[in-house]
Amino acid sequence: MTNSRYVDIRYEGIVKYEVAIELMKVLQKQRIENEINDTLLILEHPEIVTVGPRARNDGISPPPDYDSFPVDRGGGLTWHGEGQIVCYPIFKWDLAGEDSVATIISKIEDWVISSLKQLHIPARRDDRMQGVWVGEHKICSIGLSFLRWTSRHGFTINVDTPPGRVENLSGCGLGAATTTSLARLGYTTTKEAIIANLFTSIEESINRKVGEISD
Fold it and tell me: Which of 112, 170, 174, 199 has a C-alpha 20 to 30 A away from that of 56?
């Protein structure tokens, strides 16, 4: 193990979910074989609800007016769409303190919380569900899948999503309207500002540094 390592950043723009899944699988294999560095994909999806094993086991499905896609990451229902930051860390988690899924999730929560607090947004954890909350509302979902301690899937931050879409979904077993966006809570910010803060807080939160950035 090393003390820290660099993360290459890839801006992918708007990507269909099915395309992103295949890209993550390729990159995960490459990361396991040390053909690439830790890599963070930053993108946005056309509207889709991903259905994790928890939702399938509980018989929970999205409303009929939402397109959906089954996934193998942890969690239940997660909304994706316009006005949302999607981050997929294709990381090899073998640095100090990365010895369980729970600690890795906790580090990602810390990372997002730190990034939002720099914008004076009082982000926090909540015992009801992993992720990041503001007040009584969840604005960040986290769900990872691992192969040989190398992750794919990741986390979302709802910045300014279309009114009612994420709120109408009972995501991850929570009641409708529990999950929302920062804009609905009265916080005016941009995806660019939050991403910039993710970069500045990455070393303190997850012991990594920003490497090459590509569009």
Answer: 112
Phi, psi of 167 (to 5 degrees): -65, -30
- How distant, in Å, are the alpha carbons of 32, 56, 58, 153, 160 from that of 75? 24, 10, 11, 11, 23
**Tokens (6 digits) for 113:** 């919380």
The size of the chain, in residues, is 215
Q: Is the pLDDT of residue 1 over 80?
A: no
Instruction: Tell me whether strands 84-90 and 38-44 are parallel, antiparallel or unpaired.
Output: antiparallel
pLDDT in tens, 123-180: 999 988 889 999 999 999 999 999 999 999 999 999 999 999 999 886 555 666 889 9
Which of the following is catalytic: 90, 134, 172, 194? 172
Q: Are strands 132-134 and 137-147 parallel, antiparallel or unpaired?
A: antiparallel
* Cα distance between residue 162 and residue 169, in whole Å: 13
172 is catalytic: yes
Could you report the per-residue pLDDT of 80-108, keeping only the tens digit for each?
Answer: 999 999 999 999 999 999 999 999 999 99
